[in-house]
Amino acid sequence: MNVRRTAAVLAAVAVTGAATAPAALAETPKPSPSVALPSGLYGKADPQFDGVWRQSLAFLAQHTASVRPADKAVDWLTGQQCADGSFAPFRADADAACGSKTPVDSNSTAAAVQALAALGGHEKTTGKAVGWLKSVQNKDGGWGYNPGGASDTNSTSLVIGALKAAGEDPAAVRKGGKSPFDALDALTVPCTVKDGGGAFAFQPGKSAGGQRPGPLEPNADASAAGVLGSLGKGLAATGSEKDAGGACVEPGAATPKESAAGAADYLEKELTGGTHLMSVMPGAEKKPDFGNTADTVVALAAAGRPDAAEKAYGWLEENAADWARGGGPAAYAQLVLAAHAVGADPRAFGSTDLVGALGAQGPAPESQKDGSAEDAGQDKEKDEDGNSVWWIVGVGLVAGIGVGFLFSSRNKKQGK
């Protein structure tokens, strides 16, 4: 994640056909929102690439902390749905009918399904969304970010989480005889690959001539997503029975649980000092990757690696508060979900109340854990929702990005 909305940007960049990312644009100024911000929306940054994403993530995180979001916030999200059931990242005029040029995508739709299913009472909305997701499933059993786009680990895993949240059996959702788990298996790096066997790739790389798919490159971001997808879990996953791991099982022979274990092994090895991931974005390689570390905490907890998950969470608790303040609702939500995964108290994240800070990013929640209807945080953050989205947009505008994901505003370079 720095907040998974990089997905929208990278998908757009991929369509326009770019190749390599220039050196860091971390100092790129944040543009002002291009539209008037709806009163029910979380965050103050431009929502055109991540409005539905950050709203959905906020709802999921609040749900884990027994906080009910404001009705107008929920109404904004449900109002973003198109007639066919899909969601775009943001529609400024929700009363206007969606058309062929409306940029609907699997990630926004799947995230909205997970969030609304958690809240309950939105079966009609989630049912239509699931119907749309099924209609755009690829013949390999997976999903790409855009309808018809090549399947990737992150999008496929997100949809698996949405299907489970809506009461569907992902293994029974098939296209061309293939299930989503078949798609994930095809995106698993062979065990024979040194320093990455068992990991997930985002998508296949490019061959030397660019005419056919190339090798699968280990990707930490995709691996964190793939662990959850393989286990049939969503973004708000919790810890499971302890699993010590084992020998890597080759794709084609591995069960989904074995695939998850292989990716979890890879993630544990990737943690610097056992505590955090480092950025692999050009020009930022020496900086910690807070968003991907938070996602890795959730993945490791879900895969039954509590010791590794708790150690990484402890590092976040000591170091990630400033990142969250600059990252807005999705960043706070990521940390709340990490706390939930390891059974920690998100209201006592060092000296930060993550739940209160998240609530302060949008309209006052309807209710708190104690049943009170109070604002879940009085100090509004002034540097909200900067994420990495605009940095990635800047990268895309300059040179584009060879897609290597994502699923957060944290593009993990392939080949890591």
Automatic annotation (TrEMBL):
Q: What InterPro entries does this protein's entry cite?
A: Terpenoid_cyclase/PrenylTrfase
Where are the annotated segments for Disordered?
204-223, 354-385
* Residues making up the signal peptide according to the UniProt record: 1-26
Q: List UniProt keywords, sorted A-Z.
A: Membrane, Signal, Transmembrane, Transmembrane helix
Q: Does the keyword Membrane apply?
A: yes
Q: What residue intervals traverse the membrane?
A: 388-407
Composition bias (Basic and acidic residues) maps to 367-385
The UniProt record lists the keyword Isomerase: no
Protein name (Swiss-Prot/TrEMBL): Squalene cyclase C-terminal domain-containing protein
UniProt organism field: Streptomyces physcomitrii
- Give the source lineage, highest ranks first: Bacteria, Bacillati, Actinomycetota, Actinomycetes, Kitasatosporales
